[in-house]
Fold:
Amino acid sequence: MIYGQSMQWKNDISEGKTVCHLCGYLDDVNISTCRQCGEGMHQRVSNSLALTWGYVLAATLFLIPANLLPMMVVTAMGTQDGSTIMEGVVYFFAHGDFGLGAVIFIASVVVPVFKLAVVYYLLLIVQFKQHDKALTGVKLFHIIHLIGKWSMLDIFVVALMVSMVQFQGLASIQTGGAAIAFCAAVVFTIIATEKFDPRLMFDEVIIKEEEK
Amino acid sequence: MKQTACKDCGVIIDIKSFNSSTQYACPRCHSVFYRPGESFDLVLVMAVTSLLFFIPASFLPIMTLTILGQHHSVTLLEAVWFFANDGYIIIAIIASCAGLIIPLALLALIIIMILPIKLNSSPKLVRNFYRMYEYLSTWSMAEVYLISIFVAIIKLSGMAELELDFGLFSFLFFLITFYITIIWFNPNDLWAKYAVEK
Structure:
């Protein structure tokens, strides 16, 4: 951002205002409940950084068992066979189903990892006060908001496979341990992005400029 | 004149003459903070349509699998709730909420937020419903569920004989109308009907 241009921006802190995070109603900073929708008013999400770090670390840890444990355990003709997320993807590619393999790979490997990487990047922008990267940060923030829910795809696929294939004595599928770890990773990543306040990336710019 | 602040970068934005049919974006970070919605009558019609599709979608089986003469079919809720049979009650709750219950709750909330306007009743409850709507909308994943059904169809059709049932088609129609409702409905247009509390 060009220095001279950024001078003209007035933000809520410098004007002594608070914006409702749900309905966007602007009020004085000492108002505690939004007069339009009744939501609690805070200038910034409280404990945003600590909560985001906590949830994103938890999500990262859960992603490890999610990729190592089997997602589904197939029992057919008396033999049990567990397959992890990556084994499922490899299976599709080996059988020539490239489209489907790509969908599963993107939804359950690329999206979760990309989301976590973006959240870490955003946190580092705030922690190291990289204000020139804030605009890119906001764009990435919008992207992870849009794609976030798609990593639940694998959970629903497992639900359908497990509930459909129930033939006693012939073939049956059980849920593997990875499902709960993967589900936890997805949910914690969504909470982390909800707790992250993108305004923190911009904030110090204005405060520093005011000091000058 | 209307004044607000960007939720993504904190810039104070003055709108000289606010027009509810234009899209507004933040001048600094370009985040869209106002998206025009359709009239509440249209939203109401679409929401009721969607709700009607939900009934067959949730009660009829979505598909039937046949292996060596044995038939097995599931409904949408049975499929996500099956995790509970394997002992994973938490995933069962999360998946059934995200896939079915929250989208249904959003539709119900839209209808009960719009109806009081038509009936001129108190805005107190509308405020509570609005907050519930905003919090729940993050967790609505019905479209993910639909795509996962297609993935499962391709996976299962390779294993055995698979038949698609009427529940799946009603779910598809439910999802189309649900999506249109969500896109058309802008909850922030509600505030034009209610005075700010003093």
Q: What stands out?
A: Residues 98-127 of chain A form the longest helix (30 residues). Chain A has two domains: 1-43, 47-211.
